Every structure is written in C-alpha cells, then in structure tokens.
Amino acid sequence: MRVVVADDSVVIREGLVAMLAEQPGLRLVGVCEDGAELERTVARERPDAVVTDIRMPPSGEREGIRVASKLRESQPQLGVVVLSQHVEPEYAIDLMSSGASGRAYILKDRLGDAAELARVVRAVSEGGSEIDPLVVDALIAARTREKRSPLQDLTPRELEILAQIAEGKSNAAIADSLVLTKGAVEKHVNSIFAKLGLLDSTSVSRRVKAALLFLADEPGQRAAAERGQLR
After folding, report:
1. Which residue of 83, 133, 173, 209 has the smallest Cβ count within 10 Å?
2. In angstroms, what CA-CA distances link 168 with 87, 90, 97, 165?
3. pLDDT tens across 38-95, in order?
C-alpha cells in the first residue's frame, strides 16, 4: 500500500515516517511539508492513502481538510487520515461533509501505537472512516451542557426520520422503509434541518451534522421518549 505523509513539523514528520516504515505492507512514496507539495506529490505518485496534518502552509488553517476535499473530486478512492492537536468536533464535521467514506480524523496525542496508525491507514484506503473517540466525547459533552436539546422540537415522525438519516439512509431509502412518498420525506427532512438550525450548510453537510447531533444527543432522545415521542 502506497502512502504519502504531510506535516510542517519536522519532528512529527519524521515520527510518522518511522512509525509507518516498520509496518508490513505499507510503502512510503512521499513526504511533504505543506499542502501545495502534498497535492503535487499525490498527483505524481497516485498513492492509496495520505496521512496529513490539519494545519499547514500555505493557508495555515485547515489545510489538510482543504486538500482532502479536493482529493474527493480528483481521486475519490484515495483514503485520507487527518491528524490534529485539537479536540474540535467542527473540524471532523468539515472533513466528513463531502462523505465519510475513506476519511479519518485522529488526534496526534493518541498516535503512540504504530500498528494502530497503520490500521487506520488501511481502513481509509478501503473506504472506511473513523473519528477519534475523544472528539465524539467532546461533541456529546457540549450537547449535554445545553439546557435544552434541539431534538425536543422535533415531531415523532421527524425523530423517526432523523434516526434513519443517522444510519446513512438516503431520502429514497427512508421513504421505502417508512412507506412514505419521497416528497413527504423531503418535506420532513427540510423541517428537521430548519429546527436544528442547519439551513446554511450544504445538503451533504446538513445530513452529516444532523446525524452527529442525533447520535450524540442521548439526553434529548430520552426527554423525547418521556414525552411519548419515541416508540
């Protein structure tokens, strides 16, 4: 499996190279210091996976996510592991906004195990996805701190549809499952987005964010159940 590494820190870069070099079945074909060099190397080497820092030149902000988004268009089969020092759920949502397949968001502090890093690299190259558990915990904690869950505004049918969105189902698949017309499902989905404050995002991003809110918001689901909203 051909892998390219990108990080502007020489210490992190050399550490990643050393970790991946000792793993069987992986071959390092490029080492980069910034996003521009990463794009050129990927275009030239056509690797199976990329391991990249989130913050690098030239932008200095979310560069790894920017490159991952471009690669989704140019090389959709390429897996990307984005490394970050920040427990920031919004970064993970941005990374997954164009689709979760072949994408992973991992914290650098948890990179002590070379075999685990190699496992994630192999997973994204095969179309899998992964978000660091600490990032998921942060999202759950943020929602738990809120005095009122946004899910409490949803109707029983909207909660039912949101649960199926969280399972990754399309509107057509939801319509088949619930014996509804596709138009009726679309109407409910738009209402869900409005109630969750997701009108300003792209269609794909709205579905990802809505699904994460549902999966993270156990208190909101519990409150809805107490009101007889969940079967």
Report:
1. 133
2. 24, 19, 13, 5
3. 999 999 999 999 999 999 998 888 899 999 999 999 999 999 999 998 888 888 888 8
Instruction: Look at strands 2-6 and 79-84 and give their pairing.
Output: unpaired
Q: Which of 91, 96, 57 is nearest to 80 (CA)?
A: 96
- Measured between alpha carbons, how far is 26 from 107 in angstroms, rounded to an integer? 21
> CA 194 → CA 83, 173, 224, distances in Å?
32, 21, 18
Helix, strand or coil, per DSSP, at residue 84: strand
CA distance 128 to 21: 22
Residue type for position 194? A
The beta-carbon contacts of 183-190 under 8 Å, at least 24 apart in sequence, are: 185/161, 188/157, 188/158, 188/161, 189/161, 189/165
φ/ψ of residue 78, rounded to 5: -75, 130
Whole-model pTM over 0.70: no
